[in-house]
């Protein structure tokens, strides 16, 4: 007698790719790509669309205090769910796949199980978490961090946005301040399908990435305050030029990164000068620093060197320095058993795999705090992500879905066909 799990479950690719395209149209950016910053009107529209698909799939949908959305398909027994999912908030001018693929693949999995009249022992949940990107509110993965109890809900709700709003107010404004308590119930396991967002799988010509873990991440905001002055009349030696200090300090960050070398990555993603005019010496300047490394000790040492350099620059330019921690998450290993399930699934499906550390942060790194967790990567064309040109081939998505489905079904256990 063949057990249902012996027969691979394939996605309805027209439905899955159609929904990815439809969701990518929500928040179309006039400069290209899609912009659905967390808790924006575009995010609300994306949430409403995906929640509608969750209801259509027969899921019992709940919204928690920080706006995390979880849809549950009952199992034959009650108890901890086998959860899959990701995020649907985006950076500015994003592509169509980052986060969205993991959420829509989860809904597709539920619909395919229903269509095949397959029941599982454990319930299966599909989730999307609030503010994974950390683009509008920091830290990143804020929703999943709250879901696992890694940040107090009140602190999460008070998180300030880069545009002067409070997370809790924005949540209420878009109608996603849910009644469900946070932290949420710990799943039995969590498996996330995600695009790699880098060049490794494509270079290796391998369709499936078995993610070993996520590298350590450090985000901070560096702000210099000097004195705004006339650009034409103020002699150089009389200036307290905050803009020059910021540019010098940002240059030092890149010099430090060059000295430390790969695999360290460092990014000055945002740089703001005030009053931001051609003929005024900047009185205030602020920039963000994103540094990541697989080794926490190296990252701590780099953070220390950046702090020293920022102080030195402040003294050289006679300006005041303020540094604000935006995020610091240690490197996270994923569960060996989940990794083996992913390897085994790919092998049964005749798909080659390679193991790799995730360069990007993911909700899975938070769920790993409370349950066995793993990730399945599919290749990113040209290694491009956080850009309108982000792309993953349909056959790669089909392969990733088949692996995800196999792993989730085995974790949910003891299938029966009605
Ligand atoms: O920044 C990251 O790694 C993720 O996209 N939030
Ligand atoms: Mn993502
Ligand atoms: Mn992202």
Features:
binds (2S)-amino(hydroxy)ethanoic acid; 418 residues; elongated; 12 helices; alpha+beta
What small molecules accompany the polymer chains?
A: (2S)-amino(hydroxy)ethanoic acid, manganese (II) ion
Structure summary, number of beta strands: 18
Terminus-to-terminus distance: 15 Å
Average predicted local confidence, pLDDT = 97
Structural class: alpha+beta
Strand content: 15-25%
Uncertain residue ranges: none
Helical content class: 25-40%
Radius of gyration: 23 Å
Task: Give the overall shape.
Answer: elongated
Enumerate how many helices there are, as a single number.
12
- In this structure, how is the largest beta sheet organized? 9 strands, mixed
SSE pattern? HHEEEHEEHHHEHEEEHEEEEHEEHEHEHE
Quick structural gist:
The chain has 418 residues and is α+β, with helices and mostly antiparallel strands.
Any overview of this molecule?
With 418 residues, the chain is α+β, with helices and mostly antiparallel strands. The longest helix is centred in the C-terminal third of the chain and has 22 residues, at 296-317. It is 34% helix and 22% strand. The protein has helices spanning 13-24, 41-56, 100-115, 142-147, 153-157, 167-173, 200-204, 242-260, 296-317, 336-348, 364-367, 394-412, and strands at 60-63, 69-73, 82-86, 118-119, 124-128, 189-195, 208-214, 216-225, 229-230, 265-267, 271-274, 280-281, 284-293, 320-329, 332-333, 353-358, 373-378, 416-417. Strands 1, 2, 3, 5, 6, 7, 15, 16 and 17 form a nine-stranded mixed beta sheet that branches. Strands 8, 10, 11, 13 and 14 form a five-stranded antiparallel beta sheet that branches. Bound molecules: (2S)-amino(hydroxy)ethanoic acid and manganese (II) ion (2 copies).
């Amino acid at each position: 007698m063949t057990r249902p799990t012996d027969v691979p479950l394939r996605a309805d690719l027209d439905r899955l790719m159609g929904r990815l395209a439809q969701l990518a149209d929500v928040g179309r950016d006039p400069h290209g790509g899609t912009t659905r910053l967390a808790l924006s009107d575009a995010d609300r529209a994306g949430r409403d669309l995906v929640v509608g698909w969750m209801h259509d799939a027969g899921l019992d949908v709940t919204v928690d205090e920080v706006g995390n959305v979880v849809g549950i398909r009952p199992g034959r027994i009650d108890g901890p769910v086998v959860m899959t999912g990701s995020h649907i908030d985006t950076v500015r001018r994003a592509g169509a796949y980052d986060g969205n693929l993991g959420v829509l693949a989860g809904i597709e999995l539920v619909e395919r199980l229903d269509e095949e009249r397959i029941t599982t022992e454990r319930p299966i949940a599909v989730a999307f978490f609030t503010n994974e990107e950390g683009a509008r509110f920091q830290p990143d993965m804020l929703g999943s961090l709250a879901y696992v109890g890694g940040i107090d809900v009140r602190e999460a709700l008070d998180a300030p946005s880069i545009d002067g709003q409070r997370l809790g107010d924005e949540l209420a404004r878009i109608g996603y301040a849910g009644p469900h308590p946070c932290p949420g119930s710990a799943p039995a396991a969590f498996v996330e399908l995600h695009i790699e967002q880098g060049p490794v799988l494509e270079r290796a010509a391998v369709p499936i990435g078995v993610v070993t873990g996520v590298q350590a991440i450090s985000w901070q905001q560096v702000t210099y305050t000097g004195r705004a002055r006339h650009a034409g009349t103020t002699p150089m030696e009389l200036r307290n030029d905050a803009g020059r200090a910021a540019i010098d300090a940002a240059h030092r960050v890149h010099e430090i990164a060059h000295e430390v070398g790969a695999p360290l990555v460092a990014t000055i993603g945002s740089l703001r000068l005030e009053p931001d005019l051609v003929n005024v010496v900047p009185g205030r300047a602020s920039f963000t620093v994103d540094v990541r490394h697989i080794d926490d000790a190296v990252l701590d040492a780099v953070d220390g060197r950046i702090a020293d350099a920022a102080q030195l620059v402040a003294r050289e330019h006679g300006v005041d320095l303020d540094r604000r921690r935006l995020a610091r998450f240690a490197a996270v290993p994923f569960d060996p058993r989940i990794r083996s399930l992913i390897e085994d699934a790919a092998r049964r499906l005749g798909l080659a795999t390679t193991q790799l550390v995730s360069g990007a942060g993911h909700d899975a790194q938070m769920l790993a705090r409370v349950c066995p967790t793993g990730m399945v990567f599919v290749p990113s064309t040209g290694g491009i992500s956080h850009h309108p040109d982000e792309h993953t081939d349909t056959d790669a998505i089909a392969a990733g879905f088949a692996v995800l489905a196999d792993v989730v079904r085995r974790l949910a256990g003891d299938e029966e066909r009605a």
